[in-house]
Amino acid sequence: AMSYETILVETRGPVTLITLNRPKSLNALNSSVCEDLIKAFAAFEADPDQRCAIVTGSGEKAFAAGADIKEMADKPAAAFFSEDFFSRWTSHVVKATRKPWIAAVNGFALGGGCELAMMADFIIASENAKFGQPEVKLGIAPGMGGSQRLTRAIGKAKAMEMCLTGRMMDAHEAERSGLVARVVPLADLLDETLKTAEAIAAMPPLAAIGCKELVNAAFETTLDQGLLFERRVFQVLTATEDKAEGMGAFIEKRAGVFKGK
Ligand code: CO8
User: Where are the transmembrane segments (predicted)?
Assistant: First the structure.
């Protein structure tokens, strides 16, 4: 098994549960967290028995309160530029992960924490969750996707207001605004997210990958190109064994057994 410094990784059947584990600094994202998450996502993606992942935060207070301010405070600009810190999350976590994953936001999701949550395929939030992009207060701006993903998720008015004022949005406002899929009591967050992940894990895996690629394509293409891509993915999926099984199981009124073939 892999060993990690800053996260906990366990498997629950076909679901990989990744817990950010620096509770004393409200799970702030430093370079070790970055490396650990990249390793954990690579292991998840490579294991054919793992079909959905969850990222959550340890403790009851925070998902992640941002990039680690103590690590950034004395770092020279040239180092930020040359390290291009976090660019590997885009390539190694977001783009390299074809399988679905969910952010279970259990408290503060601020700055880089909000940005990490928005990298997930969707967010399930506890009632005490708080989202924000407070970078402006530190004399910086969002640096790992906040200005782009938040704007796409909730629109210009609210995204601009949040980035300019640094104010937090509670879980219910986040749900109304389209940032989170569902809000549940904190005590139920892990169980509800695991249930959702298990439901996804039971789906035909290639169809799940197809759905993820298609929804993501909606942010990258024109409507015409997106619709064409959708038809092509649909057509490809009709050639899979799991499509024969899925339709056969429906007609025979039994549960399908899917192989990812
Ligand atoms: N980094 C480092 N340490 C942190 C962070 C953080 N982001 N957030 C909290 N902590 C630490 C605190 O310093 C404190 O440590 P200690 O006990 O040693 O003093 C501990 O966690 C507990 O925090 P608080 O005592 O502050 O807890 P409160 O309940 O009083 O407040 C808050 C909770 C409101 C969440 C508060 O901690 C806070 O405002 N945190 C900072 C939030 C923030 O500004 N986040 C944005 C950071 S910048 C960012 O994420 C940029 C991303 C893109 C970077 C790209 C770089 C290339």
Answer: none
C-beta 131 within 6 A of ligand 1? no
Residue with tokens 């928005």: 118
Cα→Cα distances 178→69, 72, 103, 118, 127, Å: 28, 31, 15, 11, 15
Atom number in ligand 1 closest to CA 83: 57
Residue 237, token pair as written in the block: 């999926």
Residue 122's H or E segment, with its range, is strand 122-126
pTM for the model? 0.97
In contact, 179 and 150? CB cutoff 8 Å: yes
Ligand 1: residue of 21, 32, 33, 69 to mutate (most ligand atoms within 8 A of CB) is 69
Place of tokens 């992942």: 53
Reduced to 3 states (helix: H, G, I; strand: E, B; else coil), residue 247 is helix
Residue whose entry in the numeric block shows the structure tokens 């817990």: 19
**Contact between residue 54 and residue 91 where contact means Cβ atoms under 8 Å apart:** no
Note the ipTM here: 0.97
What is the dihedral sign for C-alpha 73, 75, 77, 82? Answer: negative
Task: Return the number of other C-beta atoms located less than 10 Å from residue 211's C-beta.
Answer: 16
Q: pLDDT digit string (tens) for 205-222?
A: 999 999 999 999 999 999
